[in-house]
Amino acid sequence: MKLIFLGPPGAGKGTIASKICENLGIPHISTGDLFRKAIKNQTELGKKVQQIIESGDLVPDALTVALVKERLNNPDVEKGYILDGFPRTIGQADSLSEFSSIDAVINFTITDDQVIKRLAGRRLCKNCGAGYHVDTVKPKEEGICDKCGGELIIRPDDAPEAIKNRLAVYYESTEPLIDYYRQKGILNDVDGSPEVAAVVKDTETTISAI
Ligand code: ADP
Ligand code: ZN
């Protein structure tokens, strides 16, 4: 099953995708995670995109598409995958259709107020990238990653100014993808506002009906 997870920043795409991928045994491909890893390792790509990502803008389509295309050459994608945070523009979606055939798109819906609350409380493991939230996805020990013991930090693009910009960028560039995929007949809406376990369950029900 080849799936796209769509939705505004903070809709829970990453959290839900990591659980579903674990259950289905397919890779979770997050462009945000791939970019953050490149920044952490200060690769050529990482140096190019650091400023853009910290301000909440989108990385240019050409760089993003090349990154995903390369990732999809890995043999682990044979049984399918979830694309989390890609495509984010119509241009990216058009490019994707040239090298992948997507079975379905899950669109996670959530209000702007909830987005702001969620992003402001979000924490990230500095070491492995696992995501947490101070109210809803708490680690066993405060400030420490359950998976690797790494330190939990606030992402630079979760600062209030960057959050505002990311929402504006979402409405301008990414929201049009809802209609794009609805017209192709492969869009499925899932309410992203309940607690994580409930959204995972709704998403699994939706996927099993595809
Ligand atoms: P969120 O979904 O919480 O906004 P992500 O981790 O998916 O966060 O993405 C973080 C940042 O990485 C984005 O704000 C953007 O700068 C960059 N990025 C991720 N995916 C893409 C993409 N498909 N196209 C352009 N930029 C992207
Ligand atoms: Zn960790």
Task: Describe the protein.
The protein has 210 residues and is α/β, with parallel strands linked by helices. It has a single domain, classed as P-loop containing nucleotide triphosphate hydrolases (Rossmann fold). The chain contains 9 helices and 8 strands. It has helices at 13-24, 31-40, 44-55, 61-71, 90-99, 112-120, 160-174, 176-183, 196-208; strands spanning 2-6, 28-30, 81-84, 104-109, 122-125, 131-133, 152-153, 187-191. The strands form 2 sheets. A 5-stranded parallel beta sheet has the order 2-3-1-4-8, sandwiched between helices. Helix 2 packs across helix 3. It is globular and about 45 Å long. The model has no long low-confidence stretch (mean pLDDT 95). Bound molecules: adenosine-5'-diphosphate and zinc ion (ZN). Adenosine-5'-diphosphate binds at residues 9-10, 13, 30-32, 35, 52-53, 56-59, 64, 85-88, 92, 157, 166.
User: What is the makeup of the main sheet?
Assistant: 5 strands, parallel
CATH class: Alpha Beta
Straight-line N-to-C gap: 9 Å
- What structural class should be given to the helix and strand makeup? alpha/beta
User: What number of domains?
Assistant: 1
Widest sheet: strand ordering? 2-3-1-4-8
Give the ordered list of helices and strands: EHEHHHEHEHEEEHHEH
CATH topology: Rossmann fold
